[in-house]
Amino acid sequence: MIKIKNYGFTLVEILVALVISVISMGAIFSSYQYFSKTHKLVSQKAALSQTARDVLTIIARDLRNAGYQDIGYLNNRVGSWQADHRWLGIDVRDRYSRSNSDMLTIYYTVSSTDRRRIFYRPWKYKNSDDLYLAKEEVNNAITGGPNWKIINDNSNMLAPYITDFQVVLKKIDGTETDNEVLKHNSHAGLALQKEVHTAEVYLTLRSPEEVYKENKTIRITNHTQPDGTDMTITDKYYRETFFISVHTRNLSIPEIQSQSFGTSIATTASYNK
Hints:
Number of strands: 13
Helix content: 25-40%
Distance between the termini: 106 Å
Radius of gyration: 29 Å
Largest sheet: 6 strands, antiparallel
Strand content: 25-35%
Shape: elongated
Structural class: alpha+beta
């Protein structure tokens, strides 16, 4: 008689294998969730960083052009309000439109006949509470006439989901300029233009989607009060602040003071750096 052996799994072996499979699937699922959340946070961080770099590069270019006067600029209305303001190069308004953010205005000529005015300001996205940084460009906004032209309106969204936008103007000695003088008093403001040596820009961006499982409380301090902001926010979004300091080369007086042992000995015509 030939004996036939039947090979198979016992009930205990099946139960052990089932437990191991469940544990393995749970570990794989947990790892997937962890790496998915990590990838989401990293990708949104990278997107914010790229957006901020692009936006601050554009703002820095305009700040370096602020106050530039084309040697052939023809609009010379002597004694008029337009003639006074054709030399205006920069203006900062604090807490624009009941928000925490500033509004930055820049003027410079782009040709012998055209002078450009640029607004950087927070703008509401449709009917939501979300803000984006808008850029408006208009040629000959003050003088008007046939050369008046809108280059970009407020629909030009530079950066979505901004939490804060601050601009601080400083003199060569590091002290801040008075934004109220720049804004309201034309003659004193025009004189103050020549003292603006650098412009510091703070831009805080928010991730488009929630990235944290639970609410997190963060404190955002961009510069110091009263011109800066100090906010505490609790939610599940990721936020990051980006900063640049730009030398306003067309505004500051092109002179430096040479000193020896604390005593001024000469004033040169070297560029103000």
